[in-house]
């Protein structure tokens, strides 16, 4: 009977091993399937954009970054990051969440969220823009929001700071070449 018991244990171990292997394979295939599906979706979206504009489109980082390039210009739109070549003379408020960004031919937009008040964020921009050599226009306060304009070296800067519906403060920065 000990031989029968060993055979039974061996059979149970093989069954357990087979179940584990099948689960691992299914998890791997599921992950691969998701990646393939995401890649197919990105390629389909790129093709649709390219057909519509007659240029080249690249969707990367799981759809979080889109670059569109034509003969005339290049536009990059992203989420959760500040563009690499965002102007160093434009201060970015600390401890913010980056919502979206875009860059096209030296023009930039940046949308941020902060837990600080509109007035605290406004004070930061008014002080730091002047310190970085920007010529400030008169800030405009309206409905609890503030709009700040500034110019420097042929560039125009607009910063709009407004209370958001989630209790945070939204910050929109737009930089345009004049």
Would you mind describing this structure in some detail?
By secondary structure, the protein is α+β, with helices and mostly antiparallel strands. The chain has 2 domains: 1-59; 73-177, TATA-Binding Protein (2-Layer Sandwich). It contains 2 helices and 10 strands. It has helices at residues 2-53, 118-131, and strands spanning 56-60, 65-69, 74-79, 97-104, 107-114, 135-136, 140-142, 145-152, 155-163, 169-177. Residues 6-12 and 21-38 have low confidence and may be disordered.
Question: Can you describe this structure in just a few lines?
Answer:
The protein has helices spanning 2-53, 118-131; strands at residues 56-60, 65-69, 74-79, 97-104, 107-114, 135-136, 140-142, 145-152, 155-163, 169-177. With 178 residues, the chain is an alpha+beta fold.
């Amino acid at each position: 009977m000990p031989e029968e018991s060993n055979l039974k244990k061996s059979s149970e171990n093989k069954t357990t091993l087979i179940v584990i292997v099948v689960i691992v394979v299914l998890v791997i295939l599921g992950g691969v399937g998701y990646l393939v599906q995401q890649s197919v979706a990105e390629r389909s979206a790129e093709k649709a954009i390219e057909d519509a504009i007659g240029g080249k489109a690249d969707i990367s980082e799981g759809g979080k970054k889109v670059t569109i390039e034509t003969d005339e210009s290049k536009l990059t739109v992203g989420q959760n990051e500040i563009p690499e070549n965002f102007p160093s003379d434009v201060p970015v408020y600390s401890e913010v969440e980056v919502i979206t960004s875009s860059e096209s031919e030296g023009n930039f937009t940046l949308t941020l969220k902060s837990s600080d008040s509109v007035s605290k964020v406004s004070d930061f921009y008014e002080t730091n823009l002047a310190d970085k050599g920007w010529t400030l226009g008169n800030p405009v306060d309206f409905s609890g929001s503030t709009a700040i304009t500034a110019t420097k070296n042929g560039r125009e800067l607009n910063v709009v700071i407004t209370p958001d519906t989630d209790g945070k403060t939204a910050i929109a920065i737009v930089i345009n070449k004049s």
